Protein 1
Amino acid sequence: MFVHGFDPLSGVIWVRGIALGPQGERELRLILDTGTPVTVLNTAAADDRGDSARMATERTHLIGVDGVQAGYRLSRDRLDVLGFSIDGCGLLCHDFDDRLNVHGLIGMDPLAGRLVTIDGLQGLLTVEP
């Protein structure tokens, strides 16, 4: 079981992740976003880590409040997040506003089949297999 404290007054649940790919392990500063269906990496964070659109396995599009945004999918050997590992995962890469200071969003895809509890009173996130 993964238990993670957060500040319930901040409105954001920050979590740490590690992506393993061709350049080795990369630490990520992520936000848990249960309104996002898939996990998304900021293209600037991908570029800073030596990844690029040239390494993409496919082109992607996300539809958000600002309209349609083009991006790409990177294949990672492993993503460690929320206390477990996901082997052979794909991360979508799209542009984020630099003022957010975030490497990406953890979407609902790694949460499928798991019990997730967000305690907004105590500031605890619990993820069970």
Protein 2
Amino acid sequence: MNTRTLVTALACTAAFHAPVALAAGGPSGTISCGTTPEDRSTTRGETQTRSQSWLDEQVPYNQNACHSNAFGDYRTDCSGYVSMAWGLTHSRTTVTLREVATEVAHADLRPGDALVNSNHAAIFVRWADEARTEPVVREQTGPDGHPPVERKWTAGTAAGYAPLRYYKVVEDGL
């Protein structure tokens, strides 16, 4: 495992154990972020706009904080970032994102899909290579205080992640 992969895995490890964010007034010990009545349908273009908003705002990584903007109120860790990009009712964890998505082949990744393992999640943006082995992703990753980034992953890094497609994504030509 290279250093970048190790740092990414460690930065988002606690998200595996983080509680699902609930509306204000939730049970003691939960992170209070806003919710929406239902998971929204979203286009691939909207996922890119939504994920770009946190890059533009330089939202700092923190598993114990929420960020609110025009797209809702979500936990500012990796799975909260994917939840916001997809327009989910609340911030999910790296494990519970699978409840609203289906696994697809790596070569079939499209903008707005996600790459997820038990410790980290990122939004797929595009392929960096014609062989479709090196994805460009947007990710909210620690340590605390660091803003989200857009970067290219190696084929080796990508191989450690399951490609997921949100069940309410609407095709829009991206």
Protein 3
Amino acid sequence: MTKKFTVASIMSALALVCLFGSAYLPTGRITLLAITSMCILVTVAQCGSYYGWLQYAATSILAILLIPFKFQVLIFIALLGYYPMVKLYIEKIEKLWIEWIVKILFFTALLIIAYFVVKYFLVRHISFGAIFDIVMTHLVLVVVIAEVIFVIYDYLLSFFAKFYNENIKDRIR
């Protein structure tokens, strides 16, 4: 139990470093955000999903308290932090086409929730500027691009999980 808690704590610290980097570095922000989910994936592979959820909660709370730029923290909390565990549950279906349908429906539901939160809660209080207006006028195109990026992200997360399980997991004691 102590070993598992230690692994989750170390991976949480690494995820926080990546979140800090994504908030402050001028380039590589998306890559660093993706690495935060890989940190949780390592914890799930080494310790199980219970410790993955603990790591997600701890990283989320610490990120809210420590990172001044909240956009990256919001992306982590809203999708990237818990998606490795959700992916694990979805992939227990073991029928590839059903898994992909569920994953895409899951992501689409998140996009719909984000749209309504932005439209009805944030637009009234924050001026987002011209880029936001362009995104809102071409919403269908933005959703299609987001779905493609999500599929690529899921594929890369699967690739990393396979690589980790085959080459690294057994070497860590």
